[in-house]
Design goal:
Largest sheet: 3 strands, antiparallel
Order of helices and strands: HEEEEEHH
Radius of gyration: 16 Å
Mean pLDDT: 85
Structural class: alpha+beta
Distance between the termini: 39 Å
Strand order of the largest sheet: 4-3-5
Number of helices: 3
Bound molecules: zinc ion
Strand content: 15-25%
Length: 117
Amino acid sequence: MQARFLRQSEEAGKLTWTCDVCRLPVEGDDGCVDVLDADTYTHNEGNARRPARWRVLHDACDPTTGKFSYWISVDRIDTPAKLLAWTAHLMKKPWFSHTTWDSILGTHAEALGAPHV
Ligand SMILES: [Zn+2]
């Protein structure tokens, strides 16, 4: 009974990642959250380039297969706790502040019921 309860709460605590291409959920190891060419932005501080955009993609939906990206398999970032841990890890990257991670956090915060700040 206890184990069943724990499984149910784990399920309730899962984040939903939606594929940018087909708009269906990405689960397990079917896809990733990635950003293309993030490191190039460390060489362009101060110019007006837009931040590198994080994408959510099924492996099969990725229109840029073969291009280098920094990626996180969805099964490694499928709970709020994992999202926090990854955010702390990514904040150490010199290119991180030049990405749209704030949008990723905002989307999940809203889905989890956080009020807009
Ligand atoms: Zn897809």
